[in-house]
């Protein structure tokens, strides 16, 4: 009897496909290969940025942020970016009344975010974005993420 019988080959193929299915389900990305996907939520770090922009530069600002986001998507550890325009924030008692946009970026670790934004190319992109204040992202420990909520 040979080692590579039909029974052995069938079991090897079944084991291989089972392993690939389990691997792709349990490890949705390579940065978190050690975590079981359904058992633990991914813990991302949220960085919030507040932007003050001239009304005439809204479109150019949004194009600049999109360009920066496209570049950062290729960096390891990047999660996603959300940009929200603050409309009708004329109430002076609100802390956000000074700003026109709020941006949220999620990263796997703060070090990956820092290394991605400290590169010379990303600094060049940031310098071309039309905004009145400096680009400064702040790490927040608690940010409510309701993107998976369905009423």
CATH architecture of the largest domain: 2-Layer Sandwich
Instruction: Kindly report the spatial arrangement of strands forming the biggest sheet.
Output: 2-3-1-4
Binned, the helix content reads 25-40%
- As for the CATH topology of the largest domain, it is Alpha-Beta Plaits
Instruction: Provide the number of structural domains.
Output: 2
Largest sheet: 4 strands, antiparallel
Radius of gyration over alpha carbons?
A: 22 Å
So what's the oligomer here?
single chain
Anisotropy-based shape: elongated
Query: How many DSSP helices?
Result: 4
Question: How many beta-strand elements?
Answer: 4
Highest-level CATH class of the largest domain: Alpha Beta
Q: Can you characterise this structure?
A:
The protein has four helices and four strands, in the order αβαββααβ. By secondary structure, it is of the alpha+beta class. The protein has a four-stranded antiparallel β-sheet with strand order 2-3-1-4. The protein is 34% helix and 17% strand. The model has no long low-confidence stretch (mean pLDDT 80). It has two domains: 1-40, no CATH class; 45-140, Alpha-Beta Plaits, CATH 3.30.70.
């Amino acid at each position: 009897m040979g080692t590579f019988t039909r029974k052995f080959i069938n079991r090897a193929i079944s084991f291989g496909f089972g392993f690939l299915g389990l691997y792709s389900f349990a490890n949705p990305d390579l940065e978190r290969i050690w975590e079981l996907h359904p058992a633990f939520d991914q813990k991302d770090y949220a960085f919030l940025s507040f932007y003050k922009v001239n009304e005439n530069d809204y479109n150019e600002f949004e194009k600049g942020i999109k360009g920066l986001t496209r570049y950062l998507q290729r960096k390891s550890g990047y999660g996603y970016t959300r940009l929200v325009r603050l409309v009708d924030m004329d109430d002076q008692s609100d802390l956000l009344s000074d700003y026109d946009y709020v941006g949220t970026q999620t990263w796997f670790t703060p070090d990956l975010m820092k290394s991605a934004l400290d590169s010379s190319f990303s600094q060049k992109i940031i310098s071309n974005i039309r905004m009145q204040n400096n680009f400064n992202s702040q790490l927040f420990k608690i940010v409510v993420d309701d993107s998976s909520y369905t009423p």
